[in-house]
Write a structure and sequence with these properties.
GO terms for molecular function: ATP binding; MAP kinase kinase kinase activity. By secondary structure, this protein is of the alpha+beta class. Among the domains are: 11-100, no CATH class; 282-330, no CATH class; 344-376, no CATH class; 423-546, Immunoglobulins (Immunoglobulin-like); 555-638, 2-Layer Sandwich (Phosphorylase Kinase, domain 1); 641-824, Transferase(Phosphotransferase) domain 1 (Transferase(Phosphotransferase), domain 1). Helices cover 18% and strands 34% of the residues. The chain is built from twelve helices and 62 strands. Strands 45, 46, 47, 49, 51 and 53 form a six-stranded antiparallel beta sheet that branches. Strands 48-55-54-50-52 form a five-stranded mixed beta sheet, with no helix packed on it. Helix 7 runs antiparallel to helix 9 and helix 9 (745-761) runs antiparallel to helix 11. The protein is elongated and about 200 Å long.
């Protein structure tokens, strides 16, 4: 069987070694209770109920007394809880009696005790304070009596009339509310030995009235009937005994011997009011006041109402602010960030001090932003000078290297040039030299004439460089340097010399090559300048050498040889003038300016080269062209009768035989035959481009073909063209051209057919009444329609026209067939 050794905290172990529970126990030591519940108390190792020992109303208690009662019970002096019925106390919530149910009762030992008879209110000591109505309190016996007690010398009675509350003058009220006489000559007192107010000319002293002569002489006014001074004289104060005593020295008003409130004039009061100090003691003060010094002299500051030197607060300080903080030090002292003055010798690298700041440091040092110390800093101008010096050295070295290098190159070049340019001794040559305007210089010729390379040919080619030689000699005593000065931007020609510049020693001569390139056919008569420099004397001089040349005839013409006489017409290509070129009547076609358009310029050059190749009696003769900007033009043979179109328009003035008309067409066909044979498509065959030179039927050539490309630098036919005003008309255009398709020589045959139609008709092919707009013509041609035969046309002529303007290119005859048909006519 298991036995218990330790029980729960509220159980005990019994003799049978089992745990049992006891009422009211909270904690045990396993054998006896240690702590009981609040409504129990511990006695003899047992928890006993409080209400069993201290009354039924006791809720909490100790071993000796109840400490808390319930249901308004109160604890009496025996520690028992009594109900209000036994205690006669009014309800109480704090276990103790706070009032009796009968107000005449009083509380004693925490219970209400019956009061004195006829007493209405008692105090805590059980003495009556107020009697019931009709009774009066006897202060001798503290009992309530039926008759009031007489109080002699009483001035004011209590409202119930049973006691005195205020006595007459010269009497005082006792604790028993009786009035007794004050001491002799006392008007008001508290007791027989404590007088408050005396009769006139008497004062209170130690509670009794005495003569007023005992009061200090320094009192202006005494409190009536007392020994207390109400108002003391100046420079005195009233002490605790009401007597007047003298203030401290130089004080006008004070409260006590140690504290002054206002000083005499020319004196100031210390801040602790302990003394009045003379202004004479304010040394180095500029502004003195009753509060001490307000402003000190230079080098001092206000400290505790006096002036103290700045040096006294900060060593070596010369100027400070109003609180003594140093703002400027003595000479050669620096004011640091802590407002301390530091000697210049204590600041490293500082050599000059100004306004308490380090303003100059040793080399390679500068003052910092506070100017209180020196910091290392590179001197920019020294670095710059060093850099510039190093750069200068490098530049000098490089320059000298370049100079010597160039000198060596020039020397080698001169040597090579001498070898190449044939530097020779004048005395050892068979070349004849002639004198010039300069004594030291001789030449072998004063005029350079350019001739052709082939013997007997005097003319030189155009756009090809021609070469001539000239020898220059030095007959002086000093070395000379010579060079030729040539014209720039010359339109006629370009010229150069080799060598360009040369040094000639004394007694020597050198051979110069002169190269001339004519830009167009012209006659050149000009001068070039031979410039010489005497290297020793430093003198320069000039000699003029003539240059002459005549070029071969080419298609590049000299604009100075063209002379305009009459304006013939104006077109989209430019303006046409009648003029003369070397005695020949010519047509000068001035082209519109190309500007910077290289494409147009190249196109023009190609056309000129093409025209230059044409050599046919049925093609207008091409003299050449001018290529100089702003003067670009083409020069051709002049036709005195103008174009075939001009004759048709002037048909009313000039009558042309039918045979001559056929001759015109035959010449035009021969011109086209020449072009087609050479693989060229004219592209613009029409009466305007057939120039008439003769009207005689017996002449070999009456008309010549012109304007095969030169009149149109930009081919309008190969672009997307619209038939609007100013663009041209589709009268002579083949259907394939109008449809912007590829075309060949057959297109020229179609154009020739329309020209043939207009020649046989001797008028415009498309009448304006029927074809008001150009596109009507285009629509008419593209649709395959053609013009009708005119009455004046014979059948075989119109048949040739029909063959030429066939809709399909392959159905048209070639130019050989056309020429043969015209011959048959």
């Amino acid at each position: 069987e298991t036995k218990c050794k330790i029980c729960k905290s509220n159980e005990i172990l019994n003799a049978e070694e089992t745990c049992s529970t006891l009422n009211g126990v909270i904690t045990t030591n396993n054998k006896v209770p240690l702590v009981c519940e609040p409504s129990y108390y511990l006695i003899n190792n047992t928890c006993k109920l409080c209400n069993e020992t201290f009354g039924n109303l006791c809720q909490k208690c100790t071993i000796n007394s109840c400490v808390s009662c319930g249901l308004t019970g109160v604890v009496n002096t025996d520690g028992l809880c009594l109900s209000p019925d036994f205690s006669e106390c009014t309800e109480s919530f704090n276990t103790y009696c706070s009032g009796c149910s009968d107000k005449s009762d009083f509380i004693k030992n925490n219970v209400c005790i019956q009061n004195i008879n006829n007493c209405d209110v008692t105090n805590l000591n059980g003495k009556c304070v107020n009697c019931v109505k009709g009774f009066y309190l006897d202060y001798n016996t503290q009992m309530c009596v039926s008759t009031p007690q007489t109080v002699n010398d009483c001035k004011t009675l209590y409202f119930k009339g049973d006691r005195c509350v205020r006595c007459k003058s010269t009497f005082y009220l006792t604790e028993n509310h009786a009035c007794l006489k004050c001491s002799e000559k006392c008007l008001t007192c508290i007791s027989n030995t404590n007088c408050i107010l005396c009769d006139n000319n008497l004062i209170v002293k130690n509670g009794f009235c005495v003569s007023g002569s005992d009061v200090s002489d320094n009192c202006n006014k005494v409190v009536t009937g007392t020994s207390i001074c109400a108002l003391c004289v100046s420079k005195t104060f009233r002490n605790e005994d009401g007597k007047c005593e003298n203030c401290m020295e130089n004080c006008v008003e004070c409260r006590n011997i140690k504290t002054c409130t206002f000083c005499e004039s020319n004196h100031f009061l210390l801040t602790n009011s302990s003394a009045c100090i003379s202004y004479d003691n304010l040394i180095n003060c500029e502004d003195k006041s009753v509060r001490g010094c307000l402003k000190c002299s230079f080098g001092y500051f206000v400290e505790n109402q006096f002036c103290s030197s700045c040096d006294s607060k900060t060593t070596n300080c010369g100027i400070c602010n109003f609180v003594g903080k140093c703002t400027s030090c003595l000479n050669d002292f620096i004011l640091n960030e802590s407002s301390e003055c530091v000697s210049k010798s204590q600041v490293d690298n500082c050599i000059k001090v100004s306004d308490s700041k380090c303003t100059k440091c040793t080399f390679w040092h500068v003052p910092d932003y506070t100017k209180t110390k020196c910091i290392a800093q590179a001197v920019w101008w020294v670095i710059l000078l060093c850099v510039l010096f190093i750069i200068s050295i490098f530049v000098i070295i490089i320059a000298m290297s370049i100079y010597f290098f160039i000198a060596i190159l020039n020397h080698h070049k001169t040597e090579k040039m001498r070898e190449k340019c044939c530097l020779f001794d004048i005395k050892k040559t068979n070349i004849e030299f002639v004198k010039t305007d300069i004594v030291d210089i001789v030449v072998n010729k004063k005029c350079i004439e350019f001739c052709g390379k082939t013997e007997g040919i005097t003319k030189i080619p155009v756009a090809i460089e021609s070469r001539e030689l000239i020898c220059v000699g030095n007959v002086g005593k000093n070395v000379i340097k010579v060079q030729f000065s040539l014209k720039d931007n010359c339109t006629k020609y370009s010229i150069r010399t080799e060598p360009k510049i040369m040094t000639i020693p004394k007694g020597k001569a050198i051979e110069f090559e002169v190269f001339l390139t004519p830009n167009y056919s012209c006659i050149i008569e000009d001068k070039i300048v031979l410039v010489s420099a005497n290297l020793k004397k430093g003198e320069t001089s000039q000699i003029y050498i003539e240059t002459k040349a005549e070029t071969e005839m080419s298609t590049r013409l000299d604009p100075d040889e063209l002379f305009e006489e009459k304006l013939l017409g104006e077109g989209s290509f430019g303006v046409v003038y009648k003029g003369k070129f070397r005695g020949n009547e010519v047509a000068i076609k001035k082209m519109k300016e190309f500007g910077n358009d290289k494409t147009k310029s190249n196109e023009f050059e190609k056309e000129v080269l093409m025209l230059d190749k044409f050599r046919s009696e049925y093609v207008v003769h091409f003299y050449g062209a001018v290529f100089i900007p702003n003067k670009i033009c083409m020069v051709t043979e002049f036709a005195q009768y103008g174009s075939l179109n001009d004759l048709i328009k002037n048909r009313s003035k000039i009558t042309i035989q039918k045979g001559v008309k056929i001759k015109f067409m035959k010449d035009m066909a021969n011109g086209l035959l020449y072009l087609h044979t050479n693989g060229i498509v004219h592209r613009d065959v029409k009466p305007d481009n057939l120039l008439v030179f003769s009207l005689g039927l017996d002449d070999k050539v009456n008309a010549k073909l012109t304007d095969f490309g030169s009149a149109r630098n930009i081919n309008l036919l190969m672009t997307n063209m619209t038939f609007t005003k100013g663009i041209g008309t589709p009268v002579y255009m083949a259907p394939e051209v109008l449809k912007q398709e590829k075309y060949k020589k057959s297109a020229d045959i179609y154009s020739f057919g329309i020209t043939l139609y207009e020649t046989f008709k001797w008028g415009e092919a498309y009448e304006k009444e029927k074809f008001k707009f150009p596109w009507k013509i285009a629509e008419f041609v593209i649709s395959g329609k053609r013009l009708e035969k005119k009455e004046i046309m014979c059948e075989k002529h119109f048949k040739l026209v029909q063959n030429c303007w066939s809709q399909r290119p392959e159905d048209r005859p070639n130019i050989d067939e056309v020429v043969n048909n015209l011959k048959a006519f």
